[in-house]
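G., the chain you wanted modeled:
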Amino acid sequence: MIESINLTVENAATELLKFINILRENPSFFINIIEEQIKNNIEDKTLLRINNSKRVRLKEEQSYQLAVDYLKELDELRGESKLTPLQLDNRLTKACEDHGLDLGKSGVISHVGSNGSSASSRAEIYINWEDKFAEIIDYYNNSTIDIIVSLIVCDGDKLRRNRAFLRNKDFKYIGIYIGEHTVYETVTVINLAGVILEKGEKRNYDIINKIVLKDPEAINTSTNKDASTDEATNVFEQPSDSVSCTVSEKDITINGEVKKSLTKTFTLINGSHLLCETILDK
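Predicted structure as tokens:
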């Protein structure tokens, strides 16, 4: 149940967008909020969320303080750290809703749909996109302030990908869905895109980097090749916490044209996977 000022799901998404754009334009706004949580809500490596009576065990002891340090560094940059606000796109929001409803019903944690869909394929039901695309999913936070703080802190993710995505200057459009989850109470799905085109509009396929997080069980490595044997492994920079990498290729048809899809999968120290996909001219 969404508890932030008795908001409806739609209004909660609107409020979350405001918080996200504050993070892009004035990140220091959140310094005092997180410092208050450190002072009053964190005890014995557990967190009492702002609008939740339940305590949650943190994966890192210093993740909240590190988030404050990060925000203060941005504040020192002043105008240099200011990014343009993201524009809400109803079609991206529909893709988020499709996955959020699926997750809420199934009770699982995954970037892969129950039908095997990926984040980008769900979005491509409604739009075409260029440049960059990312999906963020947050669970169990039932207020918009708890959601944005969770995305800023990125507890347990040493690379802090969620806040990096939200602060990426190349993203221009956003979709947001917040709903109920049968196991983790609430689920928030966010899609980010750099350039959005209408369905059927021709895209520039020279090089398009797609970055999507996937769960370990969803990665099919049966057709993958050892990354060390393929020149294409140089297309993406390997994360510092990656322990292995595989590369696979396949032909896909988009708008009637056959393209080559190159996928590079990094296995991270924490057991999660980072999937990077590039579409090249065949």
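The first helix runs from residue 9 to 25.

Shout if anything looks off.
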